[in-house]
Design brief:
Helix 7 packs parallel to helix 8. By secondary structure, the protein is an alpha/beta fold. The protein has a single domain, classed as TIM Barrel. It is 41% helix and 14% strand. Bound molecules: 3-hydroxy-3-methylglutaryl-coenzyme A and magnesium ion (MG).
Length: 311
């Protein structure tokens, strides 16, 4: 079908922002540890594909997440594309200072809607995490950096099971009060389904502008594309994805990668929704990084388009 004939369906947005999280969320959980040079090459390819935001690094303890240990070198080695926001995870001031030094444009404080996951992932309670994030948030504002907040386990937790929509909204409110410019509602273990996703997004939107909420869906149970569509229906227009469906989360056993960027772009193309991203370049980047890891890309659309040799 000629997608240029399409305009977005009434009620759906005409433009969607895709945040590429492959270099961070994707690679942090791949068993194959890639060289710094390969990671830099990967980010450089993504920079040319048209993403406005690339999550490139993570300034966390290398003992907790060894795959992200080279973040400083990676940030120093990439060719920055004008207008691209390069973001990085910063759980505390130590992480913030390293991120500032590395010249990131956006820092990400990452909490959880589940107490049990907060302890496992960042070694403190939700309330303690908000306390730690306050200094990072203030420092981000002082240094004119964008501030993003991320909420893990918004649809379920590998340790505590159910997570209520109200507990997600409570964390949204606290991150809003810290001054976040954008807040990610994350399905860490991919258990969300469309009606549940709409409920949680609706609760979150009572506390924070729907225009600055994003959907971060892992595709563990194959629900991510359906959940993105369900989110579009309730006004969400920012989504996270990983080229080649890379990744998972080291503190959520069995968690698989983020929804594949190629699949999300193919969906958006079919819906007549603009993203500003070149699907062809993304397919190439997905095939490249999957070859480096030594496996097939976890993207149905990416593999199909690569096999046809055309996009
Ligand atoms: P802690 O042990 O409670 O911290 O860890 P601490 O302050 O007691 O420090 C302990 C050691 O870590 C010290 O080193 C610090 O210097 C060092 P030592 O004296 O033992 O040699 N340290 C650091 N080193 C480098 N950078 C730092 C840093 N902070 C302390 N920033 C901490 C607390 C948060 C640091 C730790 O738990 C940690 O690094 N956790 C990593 C969690 C993580 O990265 N998880 C994966 C990312 S989140 C995710 O994937 C979810 C998301 O995708 C959304 C979703 O899908 O759900 C965002
Ligand atoms: Mg994630």
């Amino acid at each position: 079908m000629d997608s240029s004939l399409l305009t977005a369906q009434p009620g759906l947005p005409g433009f969607v922002k895709i945040v590429e999280v492959g270099p961070r969320d994707g690679l942090q959980n791949e068993a194959t540890v890639l060289s710094t040079e390969v990671k830099i090459d990967f980010i450089n390819q993504l920079s040319l594909a048209g993403f406005s935001t690339i999550e490139a690094a993570s300034f966390v303890s290398p003992k907790w997440v060894p795959q992200m240990a080279a973040s400083t070198d990676i940030m120093a080695g990439i060719r920055r594309h004008p207008g691209v926001i390069y973001s990085a995870l910063t759980p505390n001031m130590k992480g913030f200072e390293a991120a500032l030094e590395a010249g990131v444009n956006e820092v990400v404080i990452f909490g959880s809607a589940s107490e049990a996951f907060s302890q496992k992932n960042i070694n403190c309670s939700i309330a303690e995490s908000i306390g730690r994030f306050r200094s990072v948030a203030d420092a981000a504002k002082d240094n004119h950096l964008r501030l993003r907040g991320s909420i893990s386990c918004s649809f379920g937790c590998p340790y505590q099971g159910e997570v209520s929509a109200q507990s997600v909204a409570d964390v949204v409110k606290q991150l809003r009060d810290l001054g976040c410019d954008e807040i990610d509602i994350a399905d860490t273990i991919g258990v969300g389904t469309p009606r549940h996703v709409q409920t949680v997004m609706t609760y979150a939107a009572r506390e924070f502008s729907v225009d600055a909420l994003s959907g971060h869906f892992h595709d563990t149970y194959g629900q991510a594309l359906a959940n993105i569509y369900a989110s579009l229906e309730v006004g969400i227009h920012i989504f996270h994805s990983s080229v080649g469906g890379l990744g998972g989360c080291p503190y959520a056993k069995g968690a698989t990668g983020n929804v594949a960027t190629e699949d999300v772009l193919f969906l958006m193309q079919g819906l007549g929704i603009e993203t500003g991203i070149d699907l062809h370049k993304v397919v190439d980047a997905g095939q490249f990084i999957s070859r480096q890891i030594g496996r097939k890309a976890v993207s149905r659309a990416g593999n199909a388009l690569a096999a046809r040799g055309t996009v």
